Amino acid sequence: MDNMKKRYCGLPFAILGIVLCFASHGFAYDINDKLSIGGIIAGVYQYQSISDAPGFESEGRGALVFQPEVSFKLTDSDEVFAKFGFGAGNGLMEDGQSPFILAPWAADVQDDYKDINGRNRDYLLTAWYKHTFTFGDDHTLGLTGGIIDSTDYMDENAFANCEFTQFMNEALVNGPNAFLPSYDIGGAIEWEMGSFSIKGVVMAMGSTEEATEEEGGPNEPYNFYGIQFGYKVDFGLGEGNYRIIVDTTSSDFSNVAGTSKERMNALLFSFDQQLGDVLGAWVRFGFQDDEAAIDYKDIYTGGLNISGNLWGREQDNIGLGYGHLMGGNLDVDHTDVFEVYGRLVLNDIFAVAGDVQYMKDSMKTGESPSGWIFGLRATAEF
């Protein structure tokens, strides 16, 4: 075993040690009533056992992510916020390691924190100012501007939205065909009135893809526009959230032939519903046009959440999810993803989770890689 493999095989033990250290010391506090510091440390080790993927090996990789954040409340209505990201290792998404189109862990890893969106900016993920207008007990309007993440405002889901505490696979964290961008200049509006909400996001992105000149030249900047309509209900079994998301871009994406520039347009539905004290269900489905070159046109995902109330530990949970993604106009015909995880919460900060995934990319031509991915995740939230 060479030095590179030794380093990655030892990484999960270093990850667990660091996270345990932070957890045991309770690294969490508000400095005063205006300034607070928080964030997350997450360590992951995943092993892939794959078939029908010539040139790829069954192997394991680890990654460590540290995302600290700081919030300063100027007044009860005004907030300044910043989040940073640092990583060690790229996990199974290390160049040339995974045969799959979708990431088995949707988190930003080491390489994602460098030259973010082609902006020549490292480590700073978001930095924004927000003012909230309050018109009544259940009627507010929030306006945010700066460097933002569209997924902070759109496609939320109570059971399938966080790669650190819920599902890990990219297909089950957000709708990958909805092209919701992160970490660039933009503004957001959040209007909430009772059970209804409307959220809108506008962003000016630095590049259409994360590509280097060696991969075909620098990519063009583009604009993103998204709006979400939400409704919150309670049928007596628990809270439910029902969302419709519509988004589009400027005409800056190449078509398959590379002869013209097209818009990207998508419609996405994201629902979650609590079904008593133990069970919760979620579903996400959406459709994208294929004027531009796209990997996936339609997605259908859903699953169940089983609360630890079933065995007397309220904070624990088990998640089961399945996704079927229909290919667009590129190489993939369809992708199937199944994932189950069990999360054990040890205290207010520290949690560990075991995770099993099955993935298969059915290609239009050539080999169709498939395989099992076994993972261990440790997190410290502070």
Describe this entry's structure for a reader:
This protein is mainly β. It is 7% helix and 53% strand. The protein has 2 helices and 20 strands. The strands form 2 sheets. Strands 2-3-4-6-7-8-9-10-11-14-15-16-17-18-19-20 form a 16-stranded antiparallel beta barrel. The two termini are 37 Å apart. Residues 1-13, 22-28 and 210-218 have low confidence and may be disordered.
Explain the layout of strands and helices.
Blueprint: H1 3-25, E1 29-30, E2 35-51, E3 59-73, E4 78-84, E5 86-88, E6 124-136, E7 139-149, H2 170-173, E8 182-193, E9 196-205, E10 222-234, E11 239-249, E12 253-254, E13 261-262, E14 265-275, E15 279-288, E16 296-307, E17 317-327, E18 332-345, E19 350-363, E20 370-381
Antiparallel strand pairs: 1-2, 2-3, 2-20, 3-4, 3-5, 4-6, 6-7, 7-8, 8-9, 9-10, 10-11, 11-14, 12-13, 14-15, 15-16, 16-17, 17-18, 18-19, 19-20
Quick recap of the structure?
By secondary structure, the protein is mainly β.
CATH topology: Porin
- What is the class in the CATH system? Mainly Beta
Number of helical stretches of at least 4 residues: 2
> What portion of residues is helical?
under 10%
Q: Give the ordered list of helices and strands.
A: HEEEEEEEHEEEEEEEEEEEEE
Secondary structure category: mainly beta
CATH homologous group name:
Porin
Looking at the structure, what is the overall shape?
globular
Number of strands: 20
Instruction: Quickly count the domains.
Output: 1
Strand content: over 45%
The unreliable regions are 1-13, 22-28, 210-218
CATH architecture: Beta Barrel
* Sheet with the most strands, sense and barrel status: 16 strands, antiparallel, barrel
The Cα radius of gyration reads 21 Å
Distance between the termini: 37 Å
